[in-house]
Automatic annotation (TrEMBL):
Matching InterPro entries: GCL_bact_plant, GCS2, Gln_synth/guanido_kin_cat_dom, Glut_cys_lig_pln_type
SUPFAM superfamilies referenced in this protein's UniProt entry, alphabetically: Glutamine synthetase/guanido kinase
EC nos: 6.3.2.2
Name of the protein this chain belongs to: Glutamate--cysteine ligase
Keywords assigned: ATP-binding, Disulfide bond, Glutathione biosynthesis, Ligase, Nucleotide-binding, Transit peptide
Top-rank lineage group of the source organism: Bacteria
Biological pathway: Sulfur metabolism; glutathione biosynthesis; glutathione from L-cysteine and L-glutamate: step 1/2
Catalytic reaction list: L-cysteine + L-glutamate + ATP = gamma-L-glutamyl-L-cysteine + ADP + phosphate + H(+)
Family: Belongs to the carboxylate-amine ligase family. Glutamate--cysteine ligase type 2 subfamily. Belongs to the glutamate--cysteine ligase type 2 family. EgtA subfamily.
One protein family per Pfam: GCS2
Function: Catalyzes the synthesis of gamma-glutamylcysteine (gamma-GC).
C-alpha cells in the first residue's frame, strides 16, 4: 500500500464498517484489474543490497522517478517513501527491506496491465542503471541475511518491526526478505464477493505452487520451493492465513468485519504522527480504549481503512479482493498472475466451472494443501491426485474465461497468451524454483550468484 488513508469521518457503529466494504460493489462494466509487483534492488557490483540513502540509494531512485514521471511524492517524517500519480492512477512504494513496488492503475485488460508493467520496468531501469542498480524478480531474497538487509524509514514499518517477533517466528523475514505479485479484482454484490472469495481462497495454494520462486536463503538452498509461502505459515496467525469462516455458505461482509474488529491494530495517524496501537483491537478502540493515549482517541473511517490494509489473509477483502498467494517473479509472471485470476473470476461461465470444481473442498483439505505447497510445489498431493493435475483443469477454466472475455489487442490477440508461462510449468511438471535448483546443482556450480543475472530486470 503506497499511502495510508486519512479520512476523518467519525465511526458511529459497526454497520458503517460493513457498509464501507459494501461500497465496493460495482456493475460488471466497471470492473477493473489492479496489479501490484515487487522486486529487490541490488548493486550489480557485488550483488549487494541497496540502502535508502546516498547518491546511489533508494531515495535517489525515487527522486529520479519523481522527476521523470511528475508524480506527487509521498512523505513520511520529512523523507520521500513513495510516489503517487496525481489522479490516483498508480503509485510506487517501498516495502520494509527496500523492495520496490508498483501499485498499478485500475485497468480494463491484461494487455494494458502488461504494457503498464513493461513501461514501469523500463522507466525504473533508466533511472537505476546509471547508478549501477538492477532489480531481482524472485519471491525471496536469495543472498542477504536479515541483518544485511536495509531498513526503509517508514513509520508503519518501525511499529511492525517491533511487533512481529511477539506474534510469530517469521514476520521479519516476511517484511524484509520477500516479494510478491498480486492482483486486485472487483465484485458486483455481496453474493458475487462470496463466490469469488471462496473460489480464490481454495485455489490460492495452487497459485503459490504455480508461482513458487524462492528456493534460496542466505546463499544456499532452503529446502523449499516457496520460502515465501512457508513464511506466511508463521508470521502472525491472528491476521493472516486461510480464513475458515469464509468457507461458510452464509459468509458476507459482516462476517469479515467481525473478524477484523478482533485483530490487534498496528497504528493510528494523528497530525501526521503514527501512534503504536498494537496493544488493542479495533473493537476495543471503538469502545474508547485509546481515549487517553492519542489525540482525538476515537476511531475514524480512515483508521478503519488503514486497519483493513494491515490484515494479511491469503485473500484480503477491502472494497475489492486481493489475491495474495504468489511469489514475485520475472516479468512474464507479472502478466500471468492477473491473467490467471481474471480468467477464473471475471467470466460467469468460468466462475461457475471453478466453483463446481472446488465446491466440495473442505477447509481442512485446503489447509493441508497450503501446508504442503511450500516444500512440494505442484507435486503436492490433493485427495487421490496432485496439484499438477488440478492445475491442468484450472488452467483450462482460466483460459476459457479469458477467451470468453474477448479482450483483444491491436493485433487481434486475446488475453489467453499471458497464461503460456504457467502452461509451461504444468507441462514440464517443474516450478521455477525447481528449475533454479537444478541450475544451482549443475551449470551454476553450487553458487546462487548467477540468479542475479538470469532473474534480473
Amino acid at each position: 500500500m503506497a499511502r495510508d488513508t486519512t479520512d476523518f469521518r467519525p465511526i458511529e457503529g459497526v454497520d458503517e464498517l460493513v457498509e464501507h466494504l459494501a461500497e465496493g460493489n460495482k456493475p460488471r462494466d466497471k470492473w477493473r484489474i489492479g496489479t501490484e509487483h515487487e522486486k529487490f534492488p541490488f548493486y550489480v557490483d557485488g550483488n549487494a543490497p541497496v540502502p535508502y540513502g546516498g547518491e546511489r540509494g533508494i531515495r535517489a531512485i525515487l527522486e529520479g522517478m519523481q522527476s521523470k514521471l511528475g508524480w506527487d511524492p509521498i512523505i513520511d517524517d520529512g523523507r520521500i517513501i513513495g510516489l503517487v500519480e496525481p489522479t490516483g492512477q498508480g503509485a510506487i512504494s517501498l516495502e520494509p527491506g527496500g523492495q520496490f513496488e508498483l501499485s498499478g492503475a485500475p485497468l480494463e485488460t491484461i494487455h494494458q496491465t502488461c504494457r503498464e508493467g513493461n513501461a514501469h520496468l523500463a522507466q525504473v531501469r533508466e533511472i537505476a542503471e546509471p547508478m549501477g542498480i538492477r532489480f531481482l524478480g524472485l519471491g525471496g531474497s536469495p543472498k542477504w541475511s536479515l541483518a544485511e538487509t536495509p531498513k526503509m524509514p517508514k513509520s508503519r514499518y518501525e511499529i511492525m518491526t517491533r511487533y512481529m517477533p511477539k506474534v510469530g517466528t517469521k514476520g521479519l523475514d516476511m517484511m524484509y526478505r520477500t516479494c510478491t505479485i498480486q492482483v486486485n479484482l472487483d465484485f458486483e454484490s455481496e453474493a458475487d464477493m462470496r463466490r469469488k472469495m471462496q473460489v480464490s481462497l481454495k485455489l490460492q495454494p495452487l497459485s503459490t505452487a504455480l508461482f513458487a520462486n524462492s528456493p534460496f536463503t542466505d546463499s544456499h538452498p532452503n529446502g523449499l520451493q516457496s520460502w515465501r509461502g512457508d513464511i506466511w505459515r508463521d508470521t502472525d496467525n491472528q491476521r493472516s492465513g486461510l480464513l475458515e469462516f469464509c468457507f461458510s455458505p452464509e459468509f458476507g461482509f459482516a462476517d469479515y468485519v467481525e473478524w477484523a474488529l478482533d485483530v490487534p491494530m498496528y497504528f493510528v495517524i494523528r497530525d501526521g504522527h503514527y501512534h503504536d496501537m498494537t496493544h488493542i483491537t479495533f473493537r476495543q478502540f471503538m469502545a474508547g480504549a485509546a481515549r487517553n493515549e492519542v489525540p482525538d482517541g476515537l476511531p475514524t473511517m480512515g483508521d478503519w481503512a488503514n486497519h483493513l490494509s494491515t490484515l494479511f489473509p491469503d485473500v484480503r477483502l477491502k472494497r475489492f479482493l486481493e489475491m495474495r498467494g504468489a511469489d514475485g517473479g520475472p516479468w512474464r509472471r507479472i502478466c500471468a498472475l492477473p491473467a490467471f485470476w481474471v480468467g477464473l473470476l471475471y467470466d460467469e461461465a468460468a466462475l461457475d466451472a471453478a466453483e463446481a470444481l472446488t465446491s466440495s473442498w473442505s477447509y481442512k483439505e485446503v489447509l493441508a494443501m497450503r501446508n504442503a505447497v511450500p516444500e512440494q510445489g505442484i507435486s503436492a498431493p490433493f485427495r487421490n491426485t496432485t496439484l499438477r493435475e488440478i492445475a491442468r483443469d484450472v488452467m483450462v477454466i482460466s483460459r476459457m474465461g479469458l477467451k470468453n472475455r474477448g479482450r483483444k489487442n491491436r493485433d487481434g490477440y486475446d488475453e489467453t497468451s499471458f497464461l503460456n508461462t504457467l502452461d509451461e510449468v504444468v507441462a514440464r511438471g517443474t516450478t521455477s524454483a525447481e528449475e533454479m535448483l537444478s541450475a544451482y546443482h549443475t551449470r551454476w556450480g553450487g553458487s546462487i550468484e548467477p540468479v542475479f543475472m538470469e532473474y534480473a530486470y
